[in-house]
Amino acid sequence: MAQVKIEAVVKSQEMLADGVYSMVLSAPEIARQAKAGQFVSVYTKDSSRLLPRPISLCGIDKEKGELRLVYRVAGAGTEEFSRYEAGEKVQVMGPLGNGFPLKEKKAILIGGGIGIPPMLGLMKALDCERTAVLGYRDSQLFLKDEFEAFGPVSVATEDGSAGTKGNVLDAIRANGVEGAVIYACGPTPMLRAIKAYAAENGIECYISLEERMACGIGACLACVCQSKEVDHHSNVHNKRICKDGPVFAAEEVEI
Amino acid sequence: MAQVKIEAVVKSQEMLADGVYSMVLSAPEIARQAKAGQFVSVYTKDSSRLLPRPISLCGIDKEKGELRLVYRVAGAGTEEFSRYEAGEKVQVMGPLGNGFPLKEKKAILIGGGIGIPPMLGLMKALDCERTAVLGYRDSQLFLKDEFEAFGPVSVATEDGSAGTKGNVLDAIRANGVEGAVIYACGPTPMLRAIKAYAAENGIECYISLEERMACGIGACLACVCQSKEVDHHSNVHNKRICKDGPVFAAEEVEI
Amino acid sequence: MDTRVTIAGVELKNPVMTASGTFGSGAEYGEMVDLNRLGAVVTKGVANVPWPGNPTPRIAEVYGGMLNAIGLQNPGIDVFVERDIPFLKQYDTKIIVNVCGKTTEDYVEVVERLGDTAADLLEINISCPNVKEGGIAFGQDPKAVEAITREVKRHAKQPVIMKLSPNVTDITVMAKAAEAGGADALSLINTLTGMKIDIHRRTFALANKTGGFSGPAVKPVAVRMVYQAANAVRLPIIGMGGISTAEDAIEFLLAGATAVSVGTANFFNPYATTEIVDGIEAYMERYGVEDVKELIGAVK
Amino acid sequence: MDTRVTIAGVELKNPVMTASGTFGSGAEYGEMVDLNRLGAVVTKGVANVPWPGNPTPRIAEVYGGMLNAIGLQNPGIDVFVERDIPFLKQYDTKIIVNVCGKTTEDYVEVVERLGDTAADLLEINISCPNVKEGGIAFGQDPKAVEAITREVKRHAKQPVIMKLSPNVTDITVMAKAAEAGGADALSLINTLTGMKIDIHRRTFALANKTGGFSGPAVKPVAVRMVYQAANAVRLPIIGMGGISTAEDAIEFLLAGATAVSVGTANFFNPYATTEIVDGIEAYMERYGVEDVKELIGAVK
Ligand SMILES: Cc1cc2nc3c(=O)[nH]c(=O)nc-3n(C[C@H](O)[C@H](O)[C@H](O)COP(=O)(O)OP(=O)(O)OC[C@H]3O[C@@H](n4cnc5c(N)ncnc54)[C@H](O)[C@@H]3O)c2cc1C
Ligand SMILES: Cc1cc2nc3c(=O)[nH]c(=O)nc-3n(C[C@H](O)[C@H](O)[C@H](O)COP(=O)(O)OP(=O)(O)OC[C@H]3O[C@@H](n4cnc5c(N)ncnc54)[C@H](O)[C@@H]3O)c2cc1C
Ligand SMILES: Cc1cc2nc3c(=O)[nH]c(=O)nc-3n(C[C@H](O)[C@H](O)[C@H](O)COP(=O)(O)O)c2cc1C
Ligand SMILES: Cc1cc2nc3c(=O)[nH]c(=O)nc-3n(C[C@H](O)[C@H](O)[C@H](O)COP(=O)(O)O)c2cc1C
Ligand code: FES
Ligand code: FES
Fold first, then answer.
1. Residue B231: its pLDDT value, please?
2. What is the pLDDT of residue C127?
3. pTM of the predicted model as reported, rounded to 2 decimal places
4. Within a domain: B77
5. H/E element, B122
6. Kind and range of the H or E element at A168?
7. CB–CB of B40/B67 below 8 Å?
8. Same domain, B105 and B191
9. Which of A44, B104, C262, D149 has the lowest CB atom count within 10 Å?
10. What interface predicted TM-score (ipTM) does this complex get?
11. One domain for residues B198 and B218
12. pLDDT in the model for residue C128
């Protein structure tokens, strides 16, 4: 099997924090094949906006055939999604990308802002000791309680209104979080700092990247990042985030 | 007052015949000013289709502030309209055009196909002896019963399945329909024949024309027809159907 | 907050104007739009004599825009000067008269007739794709652009804006030719030449076969050309092509336009022009922009 | 019903192919689309050596379309010949290899390397707006078009399709230049040059500033150019630019295209190509068209 484009049906939509929504889609053909760290391309109904909106899988329910997407309203497309109610039909392609490798080691899962949702999917999928470090803007700690079902959670907030004031690395240091493998998703400056932290401390590290996408399946070469090694596809130093990623071993990519 | 563009609300939608729909809109600002023979510009929600769909007023209820549009699905825009349900919001501009002059003479109202709906509005608005001649494709005689409340109705059908087989002029002749003024709306060949018929018989005659429109209010000069006299706006022989029409004295225009 | 901009010495209260041919001479839209709120009204093109224009159908809808082949129907300069200028004179807005012609002499005749009227600026349309003579024939050859600009300037009392065609290999060549001819400002873009075929009737959608393509769909080409022209000449530029929101207008200002014209958008939103005026102010407020002139060409 | 068309002696089972750069070499879309159903697969442009392409962001969404500035990233002809041609060879479809280069020698080198491969046709991209050297620089000057066509033809074993840029004043001049140089067919249009500015960040949306504009929004320009070129030269034309439905494809055939390429539409509908094949058959059925060739250039 492989990715498909299907018409999914919205099962529920809920606001988790200002501008952050959780939408559950019935999409059995995709859910059946999906794993944590993969994403889907969601299409808007407005025909002036044709490109896909890539959204990570926050939850995968294979039995019910459902996907959970947690997203922030960032522009017109995600704003449109936030208006969908149960029953609405949506064009979705997936599952896309490689997903996180599931290592059998004590894991630190780090999510920053709208990078938090995919870490929840991973938190559920891992089957070893794991701890989450979540970075928020303010005290609207969306999804935090759901992480707590699977392990300890440290929080950092930019405004200091909850947990450690500062970023996720501040929270790691403040709480003495330790582990043998790091998985991270969030803004590029955060990932850059985590990559350096992991290298310094000799910790295996996987990061999930973002870039503008057109095809979502590796054909158009829009979404590349610079890779250390010559990539197998284009024979240069450009890995495709949509196909070769979005998850990369930190040392594999220049960010 | 003048035309306005407003957000109207669909009150009801009903299929009258294959592909022919009746939609009632709540649009008090427009209904208040409107008269028979005028039209509105209806906008689609699909942002790839930006131009207005001009639709004649089939009914005007000034008290309730409602407009009734009866339209045939002719393409993507009218197809979209046909999917609207009660409660849907629609952008509408109007009232547009001049409307029919209400003469105090025995009137023959002639509608052909989707030219029938505006004649119903006129049938209601006139206050003198009046008879309707309606041309249909087949036995789906939409709106016919509503005309009958105001006067006698003759029918022509292309396939002969009801009334006179043939066109509206065949029905006029077959039924010996007489009058001192003709009002007509329908396909151009029909209007051309009626114009000739009226001229031969010395009957005053008003016809409602159609053309592709962009602005709907007389500014863009898209919707012209050839006029006998030099037009007051462009100083040539081009009257604007949206502004100087859509109703013209038959001898005023070359069709 | 200062929203004023100046084009060739003429001060506009804000950078928002109408695009020629989409707003008549203002009277029709005046029923819905307060013309006093616009930086300028640009009129439909006017020639030395009345022009009947092209046969119908004159327009066709296309994805995100439209094609038009109106063919510059207009009442001729006499009626225009008697009726349309006095109408616009009633409002507190600038009057920009768009001029068309078949020959250089035609243009010159119109320009001379406008000399002692209340017109503030002249916009010379050498880029209409819908007429056989004149129009685009002038606008696609740099020598012709320079020559007609020079000739018009010799006879014009008001500052002259040359309106350029986007149907060219290199817009900077045309912009420089107009500058060399003495233009005071540039307008761009006029419409792209387009075609639509009705596959069911197997005919052209327009009687004229081809038409001018305008509307939101053309915006990326227009922004690119405004940017290129603004970086090639020292003239103020009036940007247009697909502007339907304040965001669009600001994009053109940042690319280097001093003012913007709103065309096709009027057809689907008659309130577009004044909404854009409001939206520019809201943007300035939000980002603490004191003077709209700070935005002009701010992205390099 | 006969859906076959012939381009320079190569028979395609139907007129539907992929547009270069939007379909990789078929492998990625092959998971969703049966490549055996396509008239041809046109590959991403390939150069003599690997090219890294442009910095990101490489794409931006615009109204009804997109801008791209991929910059012709490609693995170079060696990897291509070893990996991509054998992959495509597995399918019952024609292989059209799109060729790019910085100099005439680059093009010639690639064309020569392809001589003894299974490639059925060569499409020479002289119209990419996203690279500094080569690309569009060749495609905007008729003398350069003729010269490079002649040089490529001298070295090519397969028939040569020249891919033209729409960013020109007169497409017929370019079409005639390619014909004069000996081209066997033409492809048009490549992308229009466009720009988008992010008004909140006050930056260009693309790292490259400008990008190639494609998608449904550009269709009217593409149809017009295909019509003009088809009526100016005797070469078969592969039409493209905004095709996303069978109706769009038929519009291009009626305008004079012998075959069509589907590009940006793959990104929003991966099933677009085969849906278009089906839709053309449905249209032929509906209107009793026995042979698809009857449609080619049927609207004059
Ligand atoms: C692999 C991947 C996974 C993602 N997962 C999530 C998630 O789980 N939750 C979430 O809220 N967001 C996620 N994003 C970001 C999300 O794709 C963008 O916020 C969204 O596309 C914005 O669309 P818009 O129409 O609201 O904004 P606009 O700015 O109007 O979008 C315009 C165009 O830019 C693209 N775009 C804008 N921002 C981004 C971005 N950050 N990354 C990629 N493309 C962008 C859009 O897709 C669209 O094509 C993910 C991005 C990637 C690449
Ligand atoms: C003054 C006037 C009154 C009308 N009244 C009615 C009415 O009461 N009921 C009714 O069913 N139809 C009426 N029409 C015709 C109606 O406007 C078209 O059927 C409708 O615009 C088709 O839109 P579409 O998107 O479904 O078709 P498409 O073919 O997809 O439309 C494409 C474009 O062409 C325009 N167009 C297509 N057909 C026509 C046409 N016949 N006249 C003008 N523009 C057209 C559309 O508005 C749109 O801009 C009237 C037309 C005019 C000019
Ligand atoms: C119906 C119509 C008529 C036009 N008539 C003229 C004209 O008379 N003179 C002129 O210079 N430009 C004319 N134009 C071009 C516009 O002024 C403008 O340059 C173009 O439409 C691009 O802007 P837009 O996308 O906002 O419409 C016309 C455009 C349209 C749509
Ligand atoms: C992402 C992308 C990459 C492209 N790469 C190439 C290329 O390598 N060579 C080429 O000749 N054309 C390239 N093109 C142009 C397309 O082949 C096509 O000519 C153009 O996109 C118009 O068609 P469309 O509107 O269907 O996309 C590319 C287009 C896109 C969108
Ligand atoms: S989005 Fe096309 S290669 Fe990644
Ligand atoms: S539609 Fe613009 S003048 Fe009639």
1. 84
2. 84
3. 0.97
4. yes
5. helix B116-125
6. helix A168-175
7. yes
8. yes
9. B104
10. 0.96
11. no
12. 72
